[in-house]
Amino acid sequence: MAYKITDDCTACGTCIDECPVDAISEGDIYVIDPDICTDCGSCADVCPVEAIEPE
Which letter does DSSP use for residue 13 in this model? Predict the structure, then answer.
């Protein structure tokens, strides 16, 4: 099960550096590719606005 980024995302960029498989894409709201995500949770652990949650 992949993680997803909610509309609460502020596009701060903190999560991108934490993803070990580069599954996160930049944008107004960042997006996690569910086909690449390994469900490690590293991105959710560092998100300052808690905008990342399990799908």
Answer: S
The whole-model pTM stands at 0.91
d(CA 36, CA 46): 19
Distances in whole angstroms, Cα of residue 27 to Cα of each of 4, 32, 36:
14, 11, 18
* DSSP category for residue 43: H
What is the tens place of the pLDDT at every residue in 9-49? 999 999 999 999 999 999 999 999 999 999 999 999 999 99
Between CA 46 and CA 18 the distance in angstroms is 8
Domain ranges of the chain: 3-54
CATH of domain 3-54: 3.30.70.20
Pairing relation of β-strands 3-5 and 52-54?
Answer: antiparallel
